[in-house]
Amino acid sequence: MRRAVLATTGISALVVALLALKPHQFPALAGVAPRSPTASSSPHNSVGATSGSSTGTGTFTGDPVDTRYGAVQVAATLSEGKITAIKVLRAPDQNGRDQEIDSYALPRLTQEAIGAQSAHIDAVSGASYTSQGYMQSLQSALDQAHA
Fold first, then answer.
1. Is the pTM of this model over 0.70?
2. Does residue 2 form part of some domain?
3. Which residue, of 1, 6, 74, 146, is most buried by count of CB atoms within 10 Å of its CB?
4. DSSP string, 90-106
């Protein structure tokens, strides 16, 4: 009987330890496919671009990404392929907690993305869903800019 209790306790501790070591990455981000441009007056303009060309200059609106708590959508302004600004167009804001999360997570995500010049940034602790939606929407905007 004592062996059974020890074995069960040991196995449980091992399972907990293994679960704690899992990587904290968002596999959905890797599966975001670039959007192809639609027909327009110039073959170099992308959907969602307010101005720009194939050089990656202009403002590009990312796809809205539905998260557990609401949609997230961003627009990225690029100058010669370099991210110069990111504007959050939509974020979960249905209650005070959503607004609290937005107030600290969105500026940090924006700062990280501009610093990294990429959508491959760390998620903000406590804002996992918003972070994932932000990164996916930003990646779709960047895909448009480089299409």
1. no
2. no
3. 74
4. E---SSHHHHHHHHHHH
